[in-house]
Amino acid sequence: MNTSALATIKEIADGILFKSGITEAKGALIDQFTRDGYRELNITATNDGQVIGLFTMNTNLIIPFPDDLIELNDIFVPRDNQVWSLTRRTLIPKITVVENGSNIIPEDWGGGDDIPHGEGTYYETKGGRNDLGYYDVDYVNRRILFRNMDRSEVMLDYSSTGISKTQETYIPIAAKSALENYVMRELSAFDVIPANRYSLYESRYQKELSKLRMMSFNFTAFTDATYETICTSVQR
Amino acid sequence: MTRKAVIELIKQRLKSVDTSEQFPFQYIEGMCDMVWETWCSQSALDKNQDTGFFSKMYPAEAVALDSGSGYYSTTLPEQILKFTNVGSGVISVNQINAIDNDFKPVSERDFRLMKGQEVARTGSDIYYYVNYAEIRYNESMTSSIAALGVDLRLSIPFSKYLLTEELPMPSGRAMEFVGSVIELIQGTPPVNLTDKNSDS
Fold it and tell me: Taking the model in full, what pTM does it have?
């Protein structure tokens, strides 16, 4: 992989140590702040933490959240060589109980059977009929529940922390300035460097964040997404 | 200059006031230890100072796993000077034949507090703390790195250098060092005039 537009967390953290002249004894703290900053950027400014992957539900039609999932964006199944987005149904019971040592959906709560959504083609005041399946998200128990599925494997699109526990994490070079100012701001907030520099680094961080957001917005992608949804007929 | 040369030079300079040879080799060495310790601690605080000065390299020191704690550690090969900054007299730790910033010193307190933090669970940097007898590494230390050992750069007392070893002092400062030692000694009256201030 060509990583010339990417930097590792270590490169950025060591770069901060190098430029600031802060003692190496604060190296571990700067390493942690760099991770905190990148996670914050992923949540608020960039989509580098976006993950798209295949996951398989268990016999209870449930997929537990991946460990690094912060926010679920969408769920897809294949249709006509493209992806098809499933519809969320908040009426799916978020209930499982332990019976005979196994986790099951109680029969009096549907037992995992298909939920009704009408038959035939007709006009409804309520939208979102989806022949390929429905889901709901149980954030408390960190899991996704499905109904009316004809397959067990789906594609999840979610936002993650962006920081891998098992592999090297790469950060776009474009985010470097914002990260550096974030770290310096936090060092000031925690009194590692004089607290009166907080405002300076906060304003520099916000400026870099604005630049990053501007770079993240692609007008062509925006217009393409608009054209994708425009139909010439009221019937979809 | 070697350690022996420095001490001999000081003895020569003291002859004019020490006509009965009341300042033996060990006594002068002890005074050199004090001045050396002061210079080393000042050097350790100066981040612009080249770390090659006032320190000594110990290559390929062993890294062993403590089965009780589960941590890897290195027993210090020599007594180190005890500075107040984090890392103390351990100036740097590196992998064999590599110079990188992948070993970072932390205080013992931070070592304990970091255990649950992301920085200790992700990334490859190895954090260590020094307890004057050993260097203890965090969970990032791997068996493959440990098997090779590590290169240490330590700040050690003056008296721990070999007699014939060149002292890692910047050029042009030897006379300043000698002058500081003499200044320290000259104010000290000999305690045992009958036995030429012998240590025994």
Answer: 0.73
A9, A23, A36: residue with CB nearest B123: A9
Q: Residues, chain A, total? A: 236
Select from A1, A2, A55, A11 the least CA-distant residue to A179. A11
| Tokens 């000081």, residue located | B10
Phi, psi of B52 (to 5 degrees): -70, -25
A69-79 vs A102-104, strand pairing mode: unpaired
Mean of all residue pLDDT scores within chain A: 85
Q: Which residue, among A16, A19, A22, A32, would best test binding to B if mutated, counting the most B CBs under 10 Å from its CB?
A: A32
pLDDT in the model for residue A159? 87
CB contact under 8 A, A10 and B118: no
- Cα four-point dihedral sign B29, B34, B36, B40: positive
Question: What confidence score (pLDDT) does residue B200 get?
Answer: 62
Look at A27 and B87 and tell me if their CB atoms are within 8 Å. Answer: no
Torsions phi, psi for B17 (to 5 deg): -110, -10
CB distance from A190 to chain B under 8 Å? no
Determine the distance in angstroms separating the CA of A31 from the nearest CA of chain B, rounded to an integer: 6
pLDDT at B20: 64
More confident residue, B79 or A225: B79
